[in-house]
Amino acid sequence: MFTNNRLAKSVKLACAFGAASAALLTSNVALAQENASAEEQSVEKISVVGSRIRKVDFATNAPVATVGVEQFELTNSVNTEALLNTLPQTVPGLDRSSNNPGGGIATVDLRGLGTSRTLVLINGVRAVPTTSAGTVDINTIPAALIENVEVLTGGASAVYGSDAVAGVVNFSLKKNFEGVELNSSYEQSEEGDAEIWNTALTIGGNFDNGKGNAVVSMQYTEREALFADSRSISRVALDDQTDANGDFFLEPFGSSGVPGTSIFSGALPENFGEAAIFNPDGTIRPFVQSGNENDFYNFAPVNYLQLPQERHNITAMAHYEVSDDAEVYVRGSYANSNVPQQLAATPIFQTSTFTLDGNPFIDSGAQQIISDAFGQGVDTDGDGIDDQGRAFLRRRLLEVGPRQVEDDSQMYSMLAGIRGAIGDSVWMYDGYFQVGRVTQNSIQEGNVNRGRFDQALLLATDENGDVILDADGNPSCADTSANGGLTGCSPLNLYGEGNISEDAAQFLRTRVNADSTYEQKLAAFNVTGDSSGWLELPAGPIGLAFGFEHREEDFSFDPSQDLAASTIAGFNGSPAVSGGFDVNEYFAEAYIPLLEGVEFAEVVDLELAYCYADWSTVGGTTAFKIAGSWTVNDMVRARAGFNRAVRAPNIGELFQPEAQGFPSAEDPCSAASGNADSANADAIRAICEATGAPADSVFTSTLNAVSGQTPGIFVGNEDLKEEEADTLTIGLVVTPTDNLSISVDYFDIEIEDAIATFSGGVANILSTCYTSPTGGVGSPQCDAITRREDGSIQQVLAGNENTAVTKLTGFDIITDYSMEVAGGNMSINYLGTILDESSTTYPGPFQVDCTGQFGNVCGEPTTEYSHRMTVGWGMDDFDVQLLWRFIGSTDDDDQETQYFREETGSFSYFDFSGNYHLNENFRLNAGVRNLLDKEPPAFGGNAEQSNTWPATYDVFGRTYFVGVTARF
Predict the structure, then answer these.
(1) Helix, strand, coil % (nearest 5) of the chain?
(2) Can you list the pairs that 933-937 forms with residues at least 24 positions away whose Cβ atoms lie under 8 Å?
(3) Per residue in 786-803, pLDDT tens?
(4) Is the separation of the CB atoms in 801 and 747 below 8 Å?
């Protein structure tokens, strides 16, 4: 390794709370020092996340939480998101329970500001994104090589460039690994399911008398599927209801797209109410919409509760000292992840024309009822039944099979660089080049072609309008062509559960696929040193850093024709996407020691940073940082910082063509909205009728959103500009004794010109149009809504705009304490967050305050208070830990109606785990998660999936894990 004392020889992070062998969640004090010979003592200068300047005894002026490797071992965190989601600074992103929404990836979301506002680094270098939103799949990061994870909250764009609005998550990988390490673990729930196997092999060593080191790590993870019917909370779809007294309750619910085919319309005979359903014999009866024995389809059981996964990771790293002043280094990574998803069979909702008179699939009595309500006015044989009917049909196509998607993702990246000293000066340089690519292939089964669906409903007839039957009494299609299918048209008996033939199902089936590629190229060079020899303040020289980064990123999404044209029912249609950008970023940093070693001012310092970026999409942007600290004495230190952070629009926000999605939202004109009983019912009714809802359908179940989801059309905007965020942090660090440290930091983040969907998305568009004083007929929100003939919502247009102002304020509290107990060392570590405000204001003005809220608008529960606390005890070769994760209570964000004012209640989860070193070569670890088997809260229409929010609340129950590690 380097012998020049200006360069680093190793990095050793000392925990702020002492020398507990089970070092846990650490605070933000990082100290590096190494022993020296009698002739020369070498003091290492290090850098930590948030700054590129290297200096001795680095104590950052920004709040940083560090998760050490011991936490990954004690908690058996095979997938890193599982551990990061326990931190109070994060709001859970996509994880193993994310079946719909999902995509087979895992993400991290700081402060709940969105994954695209959280910058993910590996050893201080940007990770390769996966999606058009620039989101990083943290499953691609080699968990077996992680040394620690540094979480910096607050803007850091002046140091790292765009995307660091909410903060930075930096994965530091192990350095100078020597030996062979093999670890294997297994976990399963107390129910005997939700299994996860993991095995990792790491081999490394020094060479050429310690000048170089090379390491390779391989990891294999297999996660078993778990279906929703395996747990009582997710076995049956639930909905919100109130009884005659106005008391709230949950009842079994589901989709109006049923296996027997339903028709919702006010045109039905009075005795049918608002909806009808077909029996298997082709007769028709009223659709039962309430009670435990209703007709809605329970789509829940066949959905995944835990996504299966098969993952391979291979990472190789090496560095070599070619001279006293130069070291070359390389890192190559490959990751392959296969994650299937599964949903219930396709529900098709479509206004279609179908053969009516003489249709052998429909009972004659039903033909008359349908003709009277939906006939098309042509009765060739004069029997009082029209030849054809036309209605909005809702059918669950069980005969086609479940909707399945196989997501196969492959990531590779290669980094090469050189670093060293510049001559005999105190200056150091670091230059590197990285290329990376993520490719995803998705194959979808279970979709149906909408055109072929309509084709199969029209039967061949003669000149008198009579349906033509063969010798066996079977009809044929009026158009017998294949119409893009593998087989010719086969008549579709849609009228009753189980009546669709295999030939008809085969004609409908449409297999689609899509490929996406994200490519990243970046080159960077930076120098760091100080002003020794030419400018020194009384407290010492000024630390300086300068740098440049050039980055090119491109994304393409290439779907098959049916998927691109949205001619399918099943999964959402997705048009092709292609776009990219390049950016040159220039940055400068300065660390100015103002005072040192005077009374009441052991250290007073100032940090300055500035970054200018030139984008091919938005032009020039600037970011800056001003921070400082005042160390009064060994026990008290105050710190503060102000950051101007920026985020340029990502590829998806800029270039996404019109695409359909189905977010959770209820039509305010429907029965399910509850607006019929509101004080403004008459005003809302008037707007409903003026925007296309027939008078007899308003406040009826005809307009109920399908499964609480409303179709939205989402589209990019190439005229977007960058977001700007101002982040203020003010903190106090108190260390009254060597074994106790307490820090309290106030944070204030305000994002202006925040990129968001128009008016905050589909749910807000609907709410503003019908219930807000700024809405009403002729408002932009009402103009964005299109209705079908029967009054149900066809689509809501929600494009991207620089439309919002987001505000986030609160406090972070970190406490670390250690002491000797019963002959061992006990450590208590606490990390808590108090949220004061989490609001977004849209033009109008229309404000959504998600502080202490959850639901269809705010999404994942945003608690006013949460914490992560660990109590660890270690002696000799034995370590144990009790983890307490507290999630504060939240309320439903829908305050417009009486139906949805639910509370989650507060939740405490306890995990217990331990390590035992059998000898210097073998270590055992075991533990129990959700020790008290706490069940999650249940919700109806305001749940994300599985009748709850499974990334926040544990849906698996008490879970056991065991692992063994061998090292030689």
Answers:
(1) 10, 50, 40
(2) 933/190, 933/957, 933/958, 934/907, 934/908, 934/909, 935/233, 936/233, 937/904, 937/905, 937/907
(3) 998 888 898 999 989 998
(4) no
Q: Is 914 helix (H, G, I), strand (E, B) or coil?
A: strand
- Per-residue burial over 598-637, b = 16 or more CB atoms within 10 Å of its CB, e = otherwise: eeeebbbbebbbbbebebebbeebebbbbbbbbbeeeeeb
Which amino acid makes up residue 560? S
- DSSP character string of 702-750: GGPPBTTB--EEEE--TT---EEEEEEEEEEEEEEETTEEEEEEEEEEE
In tens, the pLDDT along 435-467 reads: 999 999 999 999 999 999 999 999 999 988 899
For the record, the structure tokens of 132 come out as 């058009």
Instruction: Tell me the DSSP string of 454-486.
Output: HHHHSBPB-TTSPBPB-TTS-B-BSS-S-TTSS
* Residue 898 neighbours by CB distance under 10 Å: 14
In this predicted structure, the answer to whether residue 490 has a pLDDT above a threshold of 50 is: yes
Say which residue, 701 or 575, is predicted with more confidence.
575
Q: Is 82 helix (H, G, I), strand (E, B) or coil?
A: helix
Q: Which of 515, 654, 524 is nearest to 580 (CA)?
A: 654
Average pLDDT over the chain reads 88
pLDDT digits (tens, 9 = 90+) for 118-141: 999 999 999 999 999 999 999 889
Which residues, at least 6 apart from 624, have a Cβ–Cβ distance to it below 8 Å?
A: 158, 608, 609, 610, 611, 643, 644
Q: Read off φ and ψ for residue 347, nearest 5 degrees.
A: -95, 120
Q: Which residues pair with 392 in a beta bridge?
A: 351
Res. 4 pLDDT band, cuts 50 70 90: very low
Q: Is the peptide bond before 101 cis (omega within 30 degrees of 0)?
A: yes
Q: Residue 194 gets which letter from DSSP? A: S
